[in-house]
User: Which sequence fits this backbone?
């Protein structure tokens, strides 16, 4: 359920009921009630706000209060500021010169039972208070019927006007999302989990926010809200983005989602972007024998990379220490640089993944797989000249790049030349969100090839599989359709490229 829709319901139903109750009280009792809530809501304020003007039915007041109620309600209950009262922000958004109306809205929410009390005192960072919200009352999820016994009616075919949307089989993907069910027990546990998260805003972190977003996406699928069916097709790459691309892969294939009693799995390309790079090279030079492409097709690409870059020379502790250094630097400098934060966050995830693998296997090539995978992407989309990867670099990553450049120059000269071309400054392209900065054109090229291949697979799957969805380089389907989807994807790669891509079925 959208926040805006819920706020409208609160105003139309609960607030009207509150006004009727207040009218039945005499003025003295009403004023004591206002004071009781106001002292609790605004302990440092000398002004006691009330709703008396609302009871008098003054049209101008009612109009202003209603407009203020929707602006503040949508902000107050949003994911980013759940339960936070930011008086400066609210005054700016509502356009009023004082905090009189915003405070009246908070007073009304408290009297209706949506605010339990003050979570913490005045904060200089947000210029307001953080309140404890009755999350169950606000969401009202436990009173909404679950979709366990919902009919499996054929949904109306959506309007898919443009050819690019038809090529993506947008109607079939939307039909799948409309038909998906979310495990009820898990859904209820996630709602309780989210209530715990939101009841303590001081514990918010970027990782926690991502987890909350995943829960919101599951909720949109469960209740079939409009946000579950919104899709976006990127203008240049042509990639399709939907609620399934946002959802964490674990939730997609671990049994959380099911349809007709079956869970989902995903068929994707092993080492997808390196494989597509090898195919692009093969199309330009059909007579060459590329070890790069051969290992991609054989499925041992990352182990091969481990061998040719000399990663066996380093202990796990050394590599982990290097990955963590950037995080230490960020914390020490207190940097707010977005790029640095993202890199530190990615490195932390890789370290955690290495720690998980270490419990299961002591083989170095398995331990370093997530590291090598990350470093390959960095190497492919780097904008520095190939000559900058000199041996005198003091980091393991620099040695990794140097060994890789040396190998490619001697054994894969055409691939080496292609990467040199993409690294030339004149061949960089402007960033989509920040045109003043540039990025590697190779990234765009590989995504476009990925889209071309997946679209071709979907056209061949159109009549063969009833339910499917796409997540960039993979196709999701019911477990019973997995082998059929894989076979069609293999035939498609043979028809397009003359080689059989290495495909894997990802299940629980």
Assistant:
């Amino acid at each position: 359920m959208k926040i805006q829709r819920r706020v409208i319901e609160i105003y139309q139903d609960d607030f009207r009921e509150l006004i009727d109750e207040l009218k039945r009280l005499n003025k003295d009792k009403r004023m004591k009630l206002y004071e009781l809530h106001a002292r609790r809501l605004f302990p440092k304020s000398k002004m006691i706000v009330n709703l008396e003007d609302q009871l008098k039915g003054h049209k101008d007041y009612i109009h202003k209060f209603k407009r203020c109620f929707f602006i503040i309600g949508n902000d107050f209950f949003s994911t980013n500021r759940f339960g936070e009262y930011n008086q400066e922000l609210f005054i700016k958004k509502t356009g009023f010169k004082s905090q009189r109306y915003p405070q009246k809205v908070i007073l009304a929410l408290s009297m209706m039972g949506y605010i339990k009390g003050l979570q913490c005192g005045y904060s200089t960072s947000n210029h307001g208070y953080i309140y404890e919200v009755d999350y169950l009352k606000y969401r009202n999820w436990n009173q909404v019927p679950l979709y366990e016994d919902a009919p499996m009616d054929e949904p109306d075919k959506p309007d898919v006007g443009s050819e690019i949307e038809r090529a993506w089989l947008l109607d079939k993907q939307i039909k799948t999302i409309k038909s998906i069910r979310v495990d009820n027990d898990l859904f209820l546990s996630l709602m309780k989990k989210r209530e715990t998260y939101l009841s303590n805003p001081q514990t918010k972190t970027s990782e926690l926010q991502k987890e909350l977003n995943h829960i919101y996406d599951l909720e949109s699928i469960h209740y079939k809200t409009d946000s579950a069916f919104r899709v976006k097709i990127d203008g240049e790459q042509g990639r399709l983005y939907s609620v399934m691309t946002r959802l964490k892969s674990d939730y997609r294939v671990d049994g959380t989602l099911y349809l007709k009693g079956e869970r989902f799995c995903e068929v994707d390309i092993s080492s997808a972007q390196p494989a597509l790079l090898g195919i692009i090279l093969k199309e330009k030079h059909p007579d060459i024998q590329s070890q790069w492409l051969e290992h991609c097709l054989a499925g041992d690409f990352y182990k091969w990379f481990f061998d040719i870059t000399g990663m066996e020379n380093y202990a796990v502790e050394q590599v982990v220490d290097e990955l963590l250094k950037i995080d230490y630097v960020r914390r020490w400098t207190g940097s707010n640089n977005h790029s640095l934060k993202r890199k530190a966050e990615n490195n932390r995830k890789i370290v955690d993944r290495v720690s998980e693998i270490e419990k299961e296997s002591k083989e170095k090539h398995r331990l370093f797989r997530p590291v090598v995978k990350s470093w390959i992407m960095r190497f492919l989309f780097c904008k520095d000249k190939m000559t900058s990867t000199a041996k005198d670099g003091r980091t393991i990553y620099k040695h990794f790049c140097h060994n890789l450049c040396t190998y490619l120059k001697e054994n894969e000269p055409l691939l080496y030349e292609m990467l040199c071309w993409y690294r030339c400054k004149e061949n960089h392209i402007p960033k989509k969100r920040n045109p003043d900065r540039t990025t590697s054109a190779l990234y765009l090229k590989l995504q476009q090839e990925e889209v071309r291949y997946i679209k071709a697979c979907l056209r061949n799957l159109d009549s063969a599989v009833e339910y499917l969805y796409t997540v960039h380089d993979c196709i999701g389907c019911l477990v019973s359709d997995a082998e059929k989807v894989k076979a069609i994807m293999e035939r498609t790669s043979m028809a397009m490229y003359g080689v059989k891509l290495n495909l894997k079925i990802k299940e629980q």
User: Anything to note?
Assistant: Confidence is low (pLDDT under 50) at residues 141-162.
